[in-house]
Write a structure and sequence with these properties.
By secondary structure, the protein is of the alpha/beta class. It contains 17 helices and 17 strands. The chain has a 17-stranded mixed β-sheet, with no helix packed on it.
């Protein structure tokens, strides 16, 4: 083993000096804490030995991100034999079945992302046999019912993403519903989303369910709401309307909810506003009247509120948001927010993260926001702020992140 370590150290020293790949040559710049991020670096199989050598030298690194490169099954095979880390993201490459089979035999990887890798049934079946995996993202691969069922039968997985897998049947629905170990389940952009929601009341393990872009119907939402284990639900781009929202609002365990673009109106929004245990809500792109917006703004449990691309944001709702004492994060992107609105929001000394991208804020609003001494993150890109406003914002010493790109006075 010592001979192998010396070999890897020598190998990295020689390859890094002569490597034509900029990411490999400057690999130190891609490390943050215990994560090595080499996504979109045009890496190929020939670059894998250098990466393994670097990891051998830097044992604290436990997460390798190789997303969106030019890696094939051979690259995956090399990695599978040499990696001794718990997290691997090799999403959006082309490792195919043989690469998935090779990775399934690695004993150290516990969190694996192989989404979008042209993996089919045999690769999925191999991964399903790995008893070390705790989290698997196999979205966007044509693994079919047999692959989904095999993975769903896992007793060790805590998190599973089978989004964007099409042509599935009730067989997959049943397997996913009956799993008793998975806590985080993502089945977005899938043809079985409606069926899954309709039958999910009896699942006893999942606490976080993502059915975004599945066009969940009101009747599906009514059934889904009966599952009191669920703490987080994503129904972005659904058709639940007021009926579905009212049903979901009765769930006593719900903490995080995304109902963006879900045809919700006043009645549904008012029901959601009354939830006293909701921590995070995304109500973007729904047609709410003034009363509904004010009710949501007054919710005393919400810590995060996203309301992007709303038909109209009412001034009285802005006033309520400005004095809300529980909100920590607020996103009002693309809502025609004015400088006067921004000044009202600037008075909130409890907000830590504020996103006002794509609005109508000028120097007056920027200067008002610059006086806030509690905000940590502020996004004012795509507004109408000039040099004076930007200078005031940059002078704020409490802001840790500030985005003022693409401002046109």
């Amino acid at each position: 083993m010592r001979v192998q370590a010396i070999f890897f150290v020598t190998l990295f020293a020689s390859i890094s000096v002569y490597s034509q790949n900029t990411c490999i040559a400057e690999i130190e710049r891609h490390v943050y804490k215990d994560v090595l991020t080499l996504n979109s670096c045009q890496l190929k199989t020939a670059d894998m030995p250098a990466i393994l050598a670097y990891l051998q030298q830097h044992k604290p690194i436990n997460y390798l991100n190789l997303q969106s490169n030019d890696l094939d099954e051979n690259a995956a095979t090399v990695l599978a034999k040499g990696l001794n880390i718990s997290h691997l993201n090799i999403k959006a490459n082309s490792i195919k079945d043989s690469g998935a089979i090779a990775l399934s035999q690695n004993p150290s990887i516990k969190y694996l992302d192989v989404a979008g890798n042209d993996i089919k049934k045999s690769g999925a079946l191999a991964l399903a046999k790995n008893k070390n995996l705790m989290s698997l993202n196999i979205a966007g691969n044509e693994i079919g019912d047999e692959g989904v069922v095999a993975i769903a039968n896992s007793k060790t997985l805590n998190a599973l993403n089978v989004s964007q897998i099409f042509n599935l049947t009730e067989i997959s629905t049943k397997a996913l519903v009956n799993n008793n170990s998975i806590k985080i389940l993502k089945v977005a952009s899938s043809n079985i989303g409606q069926s899954l929601a309709a039958n999910f009341a009896n699942n006893k393990s999942v606490t976080d369910l993502d059915l975004a872009d599945d066009y969940i119907l009101a009747e599906n939402a009514v059934q889904l709401a009966k599952n009191h284990n669920l703490e987080s639900i994503n129904l972005d781009h659904s058709i639940i309307g007021d009926e579905g929202a009212i049903a979901i609002a009765k769930n006593p365990s719900l903490k995080n909810l995304n109902v963006s673009t879900s045809e919700i109106g006043k009645a549904g929004a008012l029901a959601l506003a009354k939830i006293s245990h909701l921590i995070s809500l995304d109500i973007s792109q729904n047609d709410l009247d003034e009363g509904a917006m004010i009710a949501i703004a007054r919710n005393a449990s919400l810590q995060s509120l996203t309301a992007k691309h709303m038909p109209i944001i009412y001034r009285r709702a802005i006033i309520e948001l400005g004095i809300n004492t529980t909100l920590k994060k607020l996103d009002l992107t693309n809502n025609r927010i004015t400088s006067y609105d921004a000044a009202l929001l600037a008075q909130n000394t409890h907000l830590l993260d504020l996103n006002l991208t794509g609005n109508s804020i000028d120097d007056f609003g920027a200067i008002a926001l610059a006086k806030n001494t509690t905000l940590k993150r502020l996004n004012l890109s795509y507004n109408r702020i000039g040099e004076k406003g930007i200078a005031a914002l940059k002078a704020n010493i409490t802001l840790e992140e500030l985005n003022v790109e693409k401002n046109t006075p």
